Automatic annotation (TrEMBL), chain A:
Gene Ontology MF terms in the entry: ferredoxin hydrogenase activity; nickel cation binding
Cellular localisation: Cell envelope
Keywords for the protein's UniProt record, in alphabetical order: Iron, Magnesium, Metal-binding, Nickel, Oxidoreductase
Protein name: HupV protein
Binding residue positions for Mg(2+): E43, C62, I421, H476
TrEMBL record, chain B:
Amino-acid positions noted as binding [3Fe-4S] cluster in the UniProt annotation, renumbered to this chain: C275, C294, C297
Positions with a binding annotation for [4Fe-4S] cluster 1: C62, C65, C160, C194
Entry protein name: Uptake hydrogenase small subunit
Every Cytochrome-c3 hydrogenase C-terminal domain range: 227-308
Cell membrane found in the keyword field: yes
Family in the record: Belongs to the [NiFe]/[NiFeSe] hydrogenase small subunit family.
SUPFAM superfamilies: HydA/Nqo6-like
Catalytic activity: H2 + A = AH2
Organism in which the protein naturally occurs: Tritonibacter litoralis
Residues in NADH:ubiquinone oxidoreductase-like 20kDa subunit domain copies: 62-207
Keywords: 3Fe-4S, 4Fe-4S, Cell membrane, Iron, Iron-sulfur, Membrane, Metal-binding, Oxidoreductase, Signal
GO MF: 3 iron, 4 sulfur cluster binding; 4 iron, 4 sulfur cluster binding; electron transfer activity; ferredoxin hydrogenase activity; hydrogenase (acceptor) activity; metal ion binding
Top-rank lineage group of the source organism: Bacteria
Length: 476, 364
């Protein structure tokens, strides 16, 4: 039996830096170790700062999901004050956040995930010519159409948030911009343009048709659009059974408004929906270059181990809920929210299912956001006065494109005394815990085929990217 | 040099029509504040000069600069510029991964030695021998030094590369350090902002690619064409400031009327950037227009100046005007002196030396 070790990285076309060490035995990955080689120390920078400044600092953790960070910070601050944002302001926040998430899913599919199928290694495949034309990095027609569509979509954030990335509009009391009737019309027009892109390119059919798919069989028969091409590739390469996870999902619930969440919160375990409870959440530090004991984020600390001890291998902490590993992201959200197609793919939990989960979410979000904009009341209040107490604790839970994002904040003497962040990729790309249980990606990589002499195995590329890693968020 | 194509060749290969090309030249001239008579000059330069290769690297950062660049730029400008720089090396956008990517990086340096522009996004953390940012198994600071050694000039994209940004905020756990403190022997153009405006990024890079020289820089090393005026100077809410009409609380009646955000902590009076003229996301809006004050993200040290919601000073309206100016000048004066002293000991290229002395003369 031959056993070799392979270091894969740096992964380009991901947000931030990522390195993965693979143990390969008889042509398959037998163990994987994920390293996030970048550490900036945001949680320490936040200590001692004016609490409201979290709204400016936390978005700068990440230039891709900066609205998610700002939404979580605003929620955490409102929670400390025991306040609720103004309902209309909450809608604007939801809209801003949804636009960012839509755009992220689009970038992932077009710029980060699909270009791998245009590689020369696949030259003999029947779909290769089409993949090259559509998804060659930086040049494919699909990439161009998507980049243009998202720039247009971001007009909405430009209008309501002033700038993107690093928008400042979302506040604990609501949102700073009260859209006028005229703004509403402009936003609706931008959404219409985006719908046109989706129906022309991505789905090649009405958005509602994709949203209405309810079974794996129905999905198999989908032929149109870029999705059609992906499904054809996925079937031929058997991506259904590639990168399979444990079908244990987490979602904090997306886009809370006065009418409830657009996508419901919860946990999914052994094919069952379980209510979300975070009392026994812990961040395990056994394999991270961090000092201290495993702790709930309200007690957590971020003290880097400058000796970079042997048994650890990442800057990333290992979050566990009730000692268990959870996968988070679009698929998790839609399974938990109960969409029939997502539920049908819940156990499959591989590369194909994760990508389809994202596409499904694009369709559902587009429809939901159109309705949300229609319901905005320009004359109502968009901001409530929120006074932050000198002492207190708060939690901000949101769903970023890549999954569950939480901010845990404590204020003492009017200053931030503790700020802990668990990002989606912290969950998905976590290292092993004290019991030696690998994180979701580490587990999903086991069994991936590695051909003789392959230095950056294609299967590994697909699996890792199917999680849409955002490494800068992981270790902030 | 002959093996390097011209810009026009590259564009043609990307399927860009002659008509679009001419439109691009006009847009570029407009964005750079040049008169229409420059359009044929730009076109001529692009048809005849070999394009300038660009290597784009990422250190400790959040990729917001790239995001701004690829998502929001004028589609045509972005397409063109992206198609030119993509030929070389970019961590985030390129197709290759792993060793192939590292090889491409080396190959680009080798092939265009002394001739390429190095665009840096993010910065190197120096604590613990740079271990907080490792790419390809080596600290980023090594990659930066290596790539900078044979570069013609360096662009520091954004607040991180230019000044440090929030990751360098007290206590600066990783000792995140701006590029000009690590690389001291190359001309550096700072394009600050968190992130910089897309049109400013494409404008700067196009200028350098087209005219093959650095744009005129201000005392802080920023391209004067985009950073010579305060947000406040061109802010459409300025009349309300002058009239003493201020927003007193979020979403109050005055906010709906679009009054000045100075009392809400707006840093427009001390911030030099093009937000109020170029605006964001394809000219749609900018923070003040969306009801939130400017936080001054293109200024050095903006992350450690007290709360982002503190007022610039406590003085009343008209006093503020004079005072804000003084504050602005005092602050930039100090930094300017630092840059000038720094420039004196380093061997800058002739082009930059010229602009440097000119701005210094103006100062005197």
């Amino acid at each position: 039996m031959t056993k070799t070790s392979l270091l894969v990285g740096p992964f380009n076309r991901v947000e931030g830096d990522l390195e993965i060490r693979l143990e390969v035995s008889e042509g398959h990955v037998s163990a994987a170790y994920v390293n996030s080689p970048l550490f900036r120390g945001f949680e320490r920078i936040l200590q001692g700062k004016d609490p409201i400044d979290a709204l400016t600092i936390t978005p700068r953790i990440c230039g891709i999901c900066s609205i998610s960070q700002s939404a979580a910070a605003a929620r955490a601050l409102a929670d400390v004050a025991g306040a609720e944002p103004a309902p209309e302001g909450e809608k604007v926040a939801a809209l801003l956040h949804a636009v960012e998430n839509l755009a992220d899913h689009l970038t992932h599919f077009n710029l980060f995930f699909m270009p791998d199928f245009a590689r020369p290694d696949y030259a003999k495949r029947p779909w290769h010519d089409r993949a090259v034309a559509r998804f060659t990095a930086l040049q494919g027609s699909g990439l161009r159409a998507a980049t243009e569509a998202r720039a247009q979509l971001f007009h909405i954030v430009g209008l309501l948030g002033g700038k993107w990335p690093h928008t400042l509009a979302i506040q604990p009391g609501g949102a700073t911009r009260a859209p006028s009737l005229r703004d509403k019309i402009r936003i609706a027009a931008d959404l219409k343009t985006f719908r046109h892109y989706l129906e022309e390119h991505l789905f090649g059919a009405p958005v509602e048709d994709f949203a209405a798919l309810s079974s794996a069989e129905a999905l198999e028969n989908w032929r149109t659009g870029d999705i059609g091409l992906f499904l054809e590739i996925a079937a031929e390469l058997d991506l259904n059974s590639s990168g399979v996870g444990q079908a244990r999902y987490l979602s904090y619930g997306a886009y809370p408004t006065a009418d409830g969440h657009m996508f419901a919160p919860g946990l999914w375990e052994q094919g069952q929906l379980v209510p979300l409870a975070l009392d026994n959440l812990q961040e395990d530090l056994s394999h991270a270059w961090m000092l201290g004991e495993a702790a709930h984020p309200t007690q957590g600390m971020t003290v880097p181990d400058e000796t970079m001890r042997e048994e650890a291998y990442s800057w990333c902490k290992a979050p566990r809920l009730g000692g268990e590993v959870y996968e988070t992201g679009a698929l998790a959200r839609q399974v938990i929210d109960g969409h029939p197609l997502a539920r049908a793919l819940a156990d499959e939990n591989g590369v194909h299912a994760r990508v389809v989960g994202r596409m499904l979410e694009i369709a559902l979000t587009q429809i939901a956001v159109e309705a949300l904009v229609q319901g905005i009341q320009p004359e109502a209040a968009f901001m409530r006065d929120v006074t932050l107490p000198k002492e207190g604790e708060g939690i901000g839970l949101v769903e970023a494109a890549r999954g569950s994002l939480g901010h845990w904040l404590r204020i003492e003497g009017g200053k931030i005394s503790s700020y802990q962040i668990i990002a989606p990729t912290t969950w998905n790309f976590s290292p092993r815990d004290s019991r030696g249980v690998p994180g979701p990606v580490e587990a999903a990589l086991v069994g991936a085929p590695v051909a003789e002499g392959e230095e950056t195995p294609l299967s590994v590329q697909h699996i890792v990217r199917s999680f849409d890693p955002c490494m800068v968020c992981t270790v902030h | 040099m002959s093996e390097i194509e011209t810009f026009y060749d590259v564009m043609r290969r990307q399927g860009i029509t002659r008509r679009s090309f001419m439109k691009y030249c006009s847009l570029t001239a407009a964005a750079l504040g040049l008169s229409p008579s420059f359009v044929p000059k730009i076109a001529h330069a692009m048809e005849n000069k070999p394009r300038t290769p660009v290597i784009w690297v990422h250190g400790l950062e959040c990729t917001c600069c790239s995001e701004s660049f690829i998502r929001s730029a004028h589609p045509l400008a972005k397409d063109v510029v992206l198609s030119m720089i993509s030929l070389d090396y970019d961590d985030t956008l390129m197709a290759a991964a792993g060793h192939a990517a590292e090889a491409a990086f080396e190959e680009t340096i080798e092939k265009y030695r002394g001739n390429y522009i190095l665009a840096v996004e993010g910065n190197p953390p120096l604590n613990e021998d740079g271990m907080y940012c490792i790419t390809g198994g080596k600290p980023f600071v090594e990659k930066l030094r290596h790539a900078a050694k044979d570069a013609k000039a360096i662009i520091s994209w954004g607040a991180c590369a230019s000044y440090g940004c929030v990751q360098a905020a007290k206590p600066n756990p990783t000792q995140a350090t701006p590029v000009h403190k690590v690389i001291t022997d190359k001309p550096i153009i700072k394009v600050p902002g968190c992130p910089p405006i897309a049109e400013v990024m494409t404008g700067v890079i196009t200028y350098m690619l087209t005219f093959d020289r650095l744009p005129e820089l201000d005392r802080q090393g920023r391209p004067a064409m985009f950073y010579s005026q305060r947000i406040h100077d061109k802010c459409y809410r300025r009349p309300h400031f002058d009239a003493g009409q201020f927003v007193e609380a979020w979403d109050d009646e005055n906010a709906r009327k679009g009054y000045c955000l100075y009392k809400m902590g707006c840093k427009g009076p001390t911030t030099y950037n093009a937000c109020s003229t170029v605006r964001w996301n394809e000219g749609v809006s900018f923070p003040i227009q969306s009801g939130h004050g400017c936080i001054g993200c293109s200024e050095d040290g903006f992350w450690d100046q007290g709360s982002f919601y503190d007022r610039v000073t406590d003085l009343t309206q008209f006093g503020v005007e004079a005072n804000a100016d003084k504050i602005g000048i005092a602050a930039t004066g100090v930094v300017g002196a630092g840059v000038a002293a720094h420039a004196a000991v380093t061997a800058l290229k002739a082009a930059q030396r010229k602009t440097q002395t000119r701005t210094e003369k103006e100062e005197a």
